[in-house]
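--- STAGE predict ---
source: upstream dedup step, 1 unique chain passed
mode: sequence only
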Amino acid sequence: MPKPEGGRWSDARYDKGLQYQLMSDDEDSVDEEGKWKGYYRSRRPKFRSDEHHEFLMAVDAVEDPEPSIRYVKRLRGEETEVPIPYIIDPSVRARRWQIKVDWLEEEDNKKWDRPNRITENGKEWGNDEDPEELIAKKRKVKEEKGQKKRARVSATPKEGKGKAKASVKLVKATTAKPKAAKPKMARAKGKEKEGVDEGAIAGPSKPRAQVVQLNDE
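--- STAGE serialize ---
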């Protein structure tokens, strides 16, 4: 599809204005019985700006150097409400100048104002960089961050199996029940009494008989 030669629309800023994803939808025109009438109905998307629409009208007016053998008539229909298409390749995504500002400011349409739907216009329109360059830089920064993160993870020392076993043994040792201590036999203290040595085991003392002396009256 050739651009107009000379004049406003031949400027390099409009080189990105021929994405087929942003073209009008062609619908079959049928009668009440469902038979095709022999022409298409071309419907402009509501998100398209007037500037982009005028550019496409100028392109349609240019004579095709290699016309199709079979010509199909197209009539203009009413505008259609469709979302801004998502295009993987950033070089052919919709540019700001191609989108109608009033349509994009409507509450239901603000969700389409995203980098994966609309890109900036580029250097030809006064921007410092083209959208392709900005996206390439963002991807490079993201990749570098991922590489640094993977390098930190691989450099972190891992615990060996021997250390893990030692920790298990330590837990077992600390949780084991202490053994009951054997009672020690008390030793008798003091000097020898009634033939019992100091080293003899002291047992319970026997009660002594109490002697009561009765006085004669």
